[in-house]
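[Solved] Which block belongs to which protein?

Original post:
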Amino acid sequence: MNIGEAASASGVSAKMIRHYEGVGLLPPASRTSTGYRQYNDKDVGRLLFIRHSRDLGFSLEQIGELLDLWQNRGRSSRQVKALAQAHIAELGEKLEELQEMRGALESLVHCCNGDDRPDCPIIESLASEAAVRSRATTTHAPQKESPAKRRQFAR
């Protein structure tokens, strides 16, 4: 099947199929005499595996590890479970960051009248944060700030 058919069968766009091939998650496709990529059912199965892994938020590197484990029938499920547990921990950290960002935004929205006047605490907070970061980068190397610090600054 050609790349369009493989895309339809897997739910992965042709562009992403080429990308996955480029980064090594999918082996290089065989080519027709005219140079068109050709895929088989095994390739589509691999694309479905990649798509389901992406749907769960695994990184490309993690998906590479999962693919290796999937192909290795001698693996222990312990390895797969450990990888999934590490991903759960990462998702928990991201969830905390998102909740902190939401809290900061809710606080700013609460302070904004949302009327016809030009004064807006949301814009003022964003502008003052930009000014602080601008001064910090001219005096020393930039430092990554936690969402909690950003929220504290927004208040």
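(Second protein starts here: sequence line, then its structure tokens.)
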Amino acid sequence: MHNALAALRPVYVIGVGNHRYQRRSATSYVELGLTAVRAALADAGVEWSAVNAAYCATTQLDMAPARPMLRHLGCTGIPMQQVENASASGSTAFRNAVIDVASGMSDIALAIGVDKPRSLTLGITHNGLDSLEGDRVSPFTHFALLAEKYAAESGATAADFARVAVKNLGNGARNPWAHRQRAHSLAEIMSGEPVAGFLTPLQCCPVGEGAAAVLVASEEALRRHGIEPPRAPRVLNSTARSERLYPDETGWDAALTQETILQAYAEADVTPGQIDIVEMHDAFTVEELLYVEQMGLCAPGTAAAELRAGAFDIGGRVAVSPSGGLLAMGHPLGPTGIGQICEITRQLRGEAVGRQHHGARTGLAHMLGAGAVCVVHILRNET
């Protein structure tokens, strides 16, 4: 067991806030970020002066964006740190804030994610090494190939992949912070011009702008600020791993997910059957079918049948991506993992108006970054 939070002091989520994810606009990143942070402070009922540390997740902004943003709240001298970890940047910033409080370095810490889209290049393209695939295998090509492989092995059809989008876009239509806020029929999703293989445009996540913020705190801080336990889910674990060499190198995303999830369950002392809410890295529809199996939420090869049966709906056995997931909520990169924590917190409080999964007590957040890193958090309402 690695870096288990159980050996440190308890950490709780006390405040969450969002700026809607959306297409690129003239709104500055400062306004996007401050909207989310101010909402999180108001949600927690604490002043900015009570925050002891800040971690800012971005992938597409220039150097040191936190200071010119957060100084509008007051220059309090707290340590600030920029966090970049590809799509898992927000999840990693949240992990850093959690560890800060768990270790006793802070009583209240902020994780803020904010981004505005622009053209990006991955570090691997500048590593000085030639690659046989070059730039010919884009993310949607990779996942389209995985979809074809999964279909061949499980019997899943093109319609099964599209049903993931039907569910998640339907959930996003009930989420005021989602990038895509319109439900679509199976026929609409399948009729789109293929991007690659089975994947049509509505089966691929939108990348826009937005912000999300979360405040985490110690037990002492909860008492000091009069925060009621039902509104402060506990963070049971903070699990992060990076890729290894796998026997089947085409499916490293799923293999890394399974390894990280199994470690997270052990650290949180939780079983798959106890999970009520899952927010996952579903940038492409095939990912949901792959990852629910790796998470132990259904038997291998059965995800499509379970989806058709409603097992992953809000109100089903386990609500998968009730926010709409990356497919509907959107994927502005820096904020994405923090936005997942916002949704899970609202669900565990019973405050996810219009999309509440009743009886939700335990939620899991999962993000991959460039296929090479994976971060998983499990939260529980202990009241």
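Accepted answer:
You had them paired correctly. Confirming on the second one: Strands lie at 12-22, 53-57, 80-83, 108-115, 209-217, 234-242, 277-279, 319-320, 362-369, 373-380.
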